[in-house]
Amino acid sequence: MPTRRTEVQVRAGVEGDLDALTAIYNHYVRETAITFDTAIFTPEERRPWLLSHPEDGPHRLMVATDAESQQILGYATSSPYRPKPAYVTSVEVSVYVAPDAGRRGIGSLLYDALFKALAGEDVHRAYAGIAQPNEASERLHARFGFRHVGTYREVGRKFGRYWDVAWYEKDLG
Fold first, then answer.
1. Residue 75 CA to chain centroid, in angstroms?
2. Which of 87, 100, 68, 73 is nearest to 17 (CA)?
3. CA dihedral defined by 88, 89, 92, 94, rounded to 10 degrees?
4. How far is the C-alpha of 8 from the C-alpha of 105, rounded, in Å?
5. DSSP character for 84?
């Protein structure tokens, strides 16, 4: 029997998504070195993060859902790169896909929507830090025009070992 390909919709994230977004993120906290957070979050602890990504402006949250079930399949964000005022036109971007939704092009759909949303904003550069190794994330970022600009060696410690983070940038101007 052929596999039915579900349609995926991408939209701005809303407060009602908080539980599902927290569950996706907590998977990566518990199981991977993709994020350097080491303790899982409650949805209430993640609420300020969600609220820091409004539907307009340079700091966005895009959510991919299954068109039929409305199950959240992943999300992408653009967040402040650094807190100092001179960095205001730079954003750090990231993508998280639900563990059972990988290899379906969801990361690409999310980044496509995110970068289209940022096109009208006063944003000059996007940066992405990728814990190593992560070939899938490197391919995704290369597909969207990111270039490697350097690697921080053994910058984070998780699961009893040190991890490198490769940094990538993309011109948005």
1. 6
2. 73
3. 120
4. 10
5. S
For 41, phi and psi rounded to 5 degrees? -115, 150
- Across 4-13, 92-101, 121-130, 141-150, least confident range: 4-13
pLDDT digits (tens, 9 = 90+) for 116-142: 999 999 999 999 999 999 999 999 999
Residue 150, classified by CB atoms within 10 Å of its CB into exposed (0-12), middle (13-18) or buried (19+), is exposed
Distance between CA atoms of residues 71 and 46, nearest Å:
19
Rounded-to-10 torsion of CA 111, 113, 119, 124: -20
Whether the CB-CB separation of 6 and 66 falls below 8 Å is answered with yes
CB distance 95 to 74 below 8 Å: yes
Write down the pTM of the prediction. Answer: 0.93
| Residue with tokens 């994330």, as numbered in its chain | 137
Residue 26 host element (H or E):
helix 18-31
The per-residue pLDDT for range 64-95, each reduced to its tens digit, is 999 999 999 999 999 999 999 999 999 999 99
Q: Are 123 and 90 in contact (CB under 8 A)?
A: yes
Query: Among all chains, which residue has been given the structure tokens 């990361």?
Result: 107
Q: Residue type for 98, please?
A: A
